[in-house]
Amino acid sequence: MKNTYNICYEGGSGRYEDRKSVFLCDIFPVHSEGEITACLEAVRKKYWDAGHHCYAYTFGAFPEQKKFSDDGEPSQTAGKPMLDVIEGQGIHDILAVVTRYFGGTLLGTGGLVRAYQGAVKDGLANATIIERHHGELLHYVIDYDFYGRLQRIAEKENLYICSTDFSDKVKISLAVDKSESLNIMNKVEEMSAARAVLSDREEDRYFILVNGKVSLL
């Protein structure tokens, strides 16, 4: 399993036009088939007069669930090219729906592939894609004189301060990528002269970074 991978955090919209055919893309963050069904129904209701609502999605991780639909377009000209864009950028937990309004001119197989991919690319450019980390949560009890040094370790290494509690000692929780956890624990023990006490270790936690702040999943 990968320790870090991309997910859709906030959706967006995109547009592509070719010879008066208009392709409108809607991007959604999704985590279940129920959410996907609801999003598809909302798009079909919003663009009720359109000819095609093609889609591609992937959610979960390793193995992920994925599916695509050409929704009446020639086979392999819409859904699969859309999924290729999503997978090419390594994005999970995402649904892309492209709605087509026909402009009166046939675009051909190549033209359709370019249009559907172009709409998805524009939609992704307006969506928020972030990294999801498979990691660990390390809980330490430390002396006040080590707190500043631990902050500097956090700034230099792949670990993030989730919470702090100041009492007679400092209780601090650190999120760290799973591949780095042993290295971090050894470094903290060495730099604190073994005075930093690891009070708890949660070995399988997922977290994301949003605007520089960590959120646990």
* Domain tally: 2
**Major sheet:** 7 strands, mixed
Order of helices and strands: EEEHEEHEEHEHEEHEE
Query: If you average the pLDDT, what whole number results?
Result: 92
Look at the helices and sheets and give the structural class: alpha+beta
User: Which residue ranges are poorly predicted, with pLDDT under 50 across at least 5 consecutive positions?
Assistant: none
Strand content: 35-45%
CATH topology of the largest domain: Ribosomal Protein S5, domain 2
Task: Please identify which CATH superfamily of the largest domain we are dealing with.
Answer: Impact, N-terminal domain
The helix count comes to: 5
What general outline do the C-alpha atoms trace? elongated
Helix content: 25-40%
Query: What is the CATH C-level name of the largest domain?
Result: Alpha Beta
Distance linking N and C termini: 17 Å
Number of strands: 12
Radius of gyration in whole Å, from Cα?
Answer: 23 Å
CATH architecture of the largest domain: 2-Layer Sandwich
Fold and architecture overview:
- The chain is α+β, with helices and mostly antiparallel strands and 217 residues long.
- It has two domains: 4-126, Ribosomal Protein S5, domain 2 (2-Layer Sandwich); 133-216, Alpha-Beta Plaits.
- The protein is built from five helices and twelve strands.
- The strands form two sheets. Strands 1, 6, 8, 9, 10, 11 and 12 form a seven-stranded mixed sheet that branches. The chain has a five-stranded antiparallel sheet with strand order 2-3-7-4-5, with helices on both faces.
- β11 (197-210) and β12 (213-216) form a beta hairpin.
- α2 (79-88) crosses α3.
- The longest helix has 18 residues, at 108-125.
- It is elongated, with a radius of gyration of 23 Å.
- The mean pLDDT is 92.
